[in-house]
């Protein structure tokens, strides 16, 4: 992938194709369509004077809130300006000489590693293997020398959740071999019953878990994420190394209250269960498509018909093409699950596209 190829590039695409940005429906960024919780907006409105002071440079209250939510020690936690800041921060801290990346995967791991000159070894997740990693990954790790592995659970763009037993084996293998394992759980909040690997932190020193709050709580413009690890000395070093005040005062305050948004969390899971089922069943009816079973708030598919992206753009629907992902081409797409009427509009447009030829 080159440059900044991400979903949600509404302004860039509208400019490039001469379209009014406000008329596009954005299926290309995986953001909760319920919007930010009402209490978040109220808190920001009511704390405008927070801009007149520096935020706490140690983000004590925010770290305490995250630690409390995950029943771990504050010393295991560092918050960041989105998970993205922490991908770069943990990479700079680890300084791996050689790193393994699963492809396709989120672009920023590669960019962060390239910044510090790490040699990257790609591990292709193939269509034949259902785009899922399995124990063959451990065989590969035993034959190549790497200091670090990145894996996303669920993965972006495939939306697939690796097998839990496999993840356990990977954690144990990396612990034994002294390989840093960075598990990106940025989308795991969308899986109601999955607590991810944070409960295992105490037993590991090689595991680094990334979380994002921007997708689930619909605050990509505010920016907030965190990293947790049993390597508390490493977390302290990352805190000492990074630039001060990278999280703005609003994001820090908002982060302290998000874990208590139980009604919003329940409403999100309810919306997702029904709308993802709708999209999955509808997309599965098109013979032109191969759709992979989603686990998070987006769906991944292959389309035999060329140029679906451009055609849907004419319908003012922006989906994510995956041609810039290493290991994929322009026939693969990712779409976010959105609100009922938006999802219906997408399906209606696709019915038209596929029936009209
Ligand atoms: C797998 C994955 N990790 C991390 C991020 C970055 O999230 P944030 O907005 O918290 O920086 C993204 C954003 O798309 C992502 O897809």
UniProtKB/TrEMBL annotation:
Q: Does the keyword Lyase apply?
A: yes
Boundaries of every Aminotransferase class I/classII large domain copy: 23-349
Which cofactors, if any, are listed as required? pyridoxal 5'-phosphate
The answer on whether this UniProt entry bears the keyword Transferase reads yes
EC number(s) for this protein?
4.1.1.81
Write the record's keywords in alphabetical order, separated by commas.
Answer: Aminotransferase, Cobalamin biosynthesis, Lyase, Pyridoxal phosphate, Transferase
What PROSITE patterns does the record point to?
A: AA_TRANSFER_CLASS_1
Q: Which Pfam families match?
A: Aminotran_1_2
Which pathway or pathways does this protein act in?
Answer: Cofactor biosynthesis; adenosylcobalamin biosynthesis
**Which superkingdom does the taxonomy of this entry point to?**
Bacteria
Molecular function (GO) terms for this protein are: pyridoxal phosphate binding; threonine-phosphate decarboxylase activity; transaminase activity
Q: Which reaction does it catalyse?
A: O-phospho-L-threonine + H(+) = (R)-1-aminopropan-2-yl phosphate + CO2
What's a BP term from Gene Ontology annotated to this protein? Answer: cobalamin biosynthetic process
The record's listing under NCBIfam families reads:
L_thr_O3P_dcar
Per the entry, what this protein does is: Decarboxylates L-threonine-O-3-phosphate to yield (R)-1-amino-2-propanol O-2-phosphate, the precursor for the linkage between the nucleotide loop and the corrin ring in cobalamin.
What is this protein's name?
Answer: threonine-phosphate decarboxylase
Can you name the source organism? Xenorhabdus kozodoii
Please spell out the taxonomic lineage of the organism that makes this protein. Answer: Bacteria, Pseudomonadati, Pseudomonadota, Gammaproteobacteria, Enterobacterales
């Amino acid at each position: 992938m080159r440059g900044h190829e991400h979903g949600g590039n509404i302004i860039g695409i509208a400019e490039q194709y001469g379209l009014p940005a406000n008329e596009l429906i954005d299926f290309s960024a995986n953001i909760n369509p319920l919007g930010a919780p009402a209490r978040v907006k109220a808190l920001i409105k009511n704390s405008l004077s927070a801009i007149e002071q520096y935020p706490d440079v140690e983000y004590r209250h925010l770290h305490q809130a995250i630690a409390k939510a995950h029943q771990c020690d504050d010393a295991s936690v560092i918050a960041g300006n989105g998970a993205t800041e922490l991908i770069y921060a943990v990479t700079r801290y680890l300084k791996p000489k050689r790193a393994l990346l699963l492809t396709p995967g989120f672009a920023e791991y590669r960019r962060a590693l390239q910044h510090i000159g790490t040699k990257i070894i790609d591990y292709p997740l193939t269509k034949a293997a259902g785009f899922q990693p399995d124990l063959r990954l451990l065989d590969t790790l035993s034959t190549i020398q790497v200091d670090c592995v990145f894996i996303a659970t669920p993965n972006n763009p495939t939306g697939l959740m690796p097998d839990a037993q496999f993840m356990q084996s990977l954690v144990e293998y990396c612990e034994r071999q002294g390989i840093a394992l960075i598990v990106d759980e940025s989308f795991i909040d969308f899986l109601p019953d999955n607590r991810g690997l944070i409960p295992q932190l105490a037993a590991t020193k090689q595991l680094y878990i990334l979380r994002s709050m921007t997708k689930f709580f619909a605050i990509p413009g505010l920016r907030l994420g965190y990293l947790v690890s049993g390597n508390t000395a490493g977390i302290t070093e990352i805190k000492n190394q990074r630039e001060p005040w990278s999280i703005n005062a609003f994001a820090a305050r908002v982060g302290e209250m998000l874990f208590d948004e139980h009604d919003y969390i329940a409403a999100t899971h309810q919306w997702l269960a029904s709308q993802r089922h709708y999209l999955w069943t509808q997309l599965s009816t098109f013979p032109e498509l191969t759709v992979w079973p989603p686990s998070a708030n987006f769906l991944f598919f292959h389309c035999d018909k060329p140029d679906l992206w451009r055609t849907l753009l004419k319908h003012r629907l922006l989906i994510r093409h995956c041609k810039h992902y290493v290991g994929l081409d322009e026939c693969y797409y990712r779409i976010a699950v959105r609100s009922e009427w938006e999802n219906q509009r997408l399906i209606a447009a696709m019915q038209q596209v596929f029936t009209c030829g």
